[in-house]
Amino acid sequence: MTTTRITGRLTDDSGRRTRKPRNILTYVFLGILVVYFLVPLWFLFVASTKDAPSLFSGDSALWFSGEFNLFTNLSNLVTYNDGIYLRWIGNSALYAFLGGLGATVLAVLAGYGFAKYNFRGRDLSFAILLGSVMVPLTALVIPTFVLFSELGLTDTIWAVILPSLLSPFGVYLMRVYAAEAVPDELLDAARMDGAGEFRSFFQVALPLMRPAVVTVLLLSVVGTWNNYFLPLAMLSNSQLYPITVGIGLWQGLASQNNGGGGGPSLWTLIIVGSLISIIPLIIAFLSLQKYWQGGLAIGSLK
Amino acid sequence: MADVATAPATKPATRKRTARERQHSRTGWLFVAPFGVVFVVFLVTPLVYAFYLSLFSKGLATGTAFAGVNNYIRAFTDPSFLKGVWFVVRFSIVLIPVQMLVSLAAALVLDNLTNRFARFARLMIFLPYAVPAVIGALMWGFLYSPSFGPLEQLFGADAPFLLSPDNIFYGLMNVVTWQWAGYYMIIIYAALRGIDPTIYEAAKIDGANAWQVALRIKIPMVRSALVLILVFALIGTLQFFTEPQVLGPVANGTITPDFTPNIYAFNLAFKYAQFNYASAISFSLGAIVFVGVYIFLFVTRKRGSVL
Lengths: 302, 307
Description:
Chain A: It is a multi-pass membrane protein. Chain A is mostly helical and about 300 residues long.
């Protein structure tokens, strides 16, 4: 497989003959899919604009009713419990940033090493790595918890960040991509010109690997941001919770005393809090789409 | 996935390793080493440690004692564990084909269109991937809920409650399909874009219609993408945890503490502090996933050699 095939995948729709849309059914099918995939998000948005009574009235779940309460709900959200919500968002951002970035750096280095250096033990280590992709990561959470508790690391930010650095699939993606996108001739030429190994990596290889780097970065950031099992197991101090565990905590509390008393209903906070928590990643995906859309194809190359 | 064809980075001119090659080998290790450390510390060590923990048992009176394979005998005769395994296996068998069908159909349709609506649809279908599983499950929990959701408006008093014991299977299936189908669609779509369009021209000259092109050319050519997705889906579904755990509080007791093996292990460890037995459950689940995926890859690879 040549480099042109990869770059062919990266270009979006250009260079492809447009076929005439003959079939109205095609559009109906796509329309139904779009509606299906958007309904929960639409519900979330509409529900975020309601106060508790109109939320529970249930007579127009998918349309606005009552007063437009979005901004009241937002201000309740950020002030509730001394602004714990903002703290959770901040924690999520910190964990996702450090965990995702760290995992990406490790994956890029290792993927490049596997692809471009024929070191002793390479094939065996890579075979082990591929096998490890099949290990369910949740099976590691309980023993990691016990190990960390012996080291006094549970209930610290490191309990969430350090295990998130592990991304065998990221290494696999980077290796496949680097093997095809970085020509050996180019590296040899750089070496002839006197560039050291690390300079060749940073100045020649890394720019060529950019789409895969962005993809792996997005995948690991999303993986850490969305993780639930690991922080749920590791953390007991609610000040350290990421947003997923925090919202889960609220939902458990709200279900226990359904109806609630006065003040902002926890349910309205859960809804508006959920809405805010999905916005950062949606923006990241929309703004970086030209990179990841091509990058995601890498894994399917054989 | 193993057969990544990479030519050796350098072709040794002689059999003897030169100083330059040794240097080359060392640099290669330097690149791989940071990941290698993380791999050993956070994957190999917990795995070995889980196995070690699973060989002991802890009693109030007896303290920690070597138990050999007793925890495993207990696990594989424990109705809670077996019921959970049976649920996730059944769930995978039904869910994965549905998910594949939705994502494959969407990818094939999108591959045939190049207008603005298609681009919009592609992004919207993908969007749920960016939504945390916790939030996705919550949103569907709201939509299913009799007090918030639209189902009662649509169906009146006969509205199905998708979190009841009879319906939870489908309720969860819908959540997971919603969450992941778009991601799988994008992977298939990207693979479809990689097919050389001149193949279609040739097929057209031979008189193939759109269905034949899709079934005989496109699907076989994205086979490796489909296998990759299947493996992901299988690994993900067998360790099912987040969605049922999140829907638990609103499902009126439908989600039992042993609903899936992972939920069971979590509750054993963190509610009952039975870390040894929980490790045995985790390790057994890991082994089931590993063996299941390995068998699957072995079977599909054999067939793949025809290609």
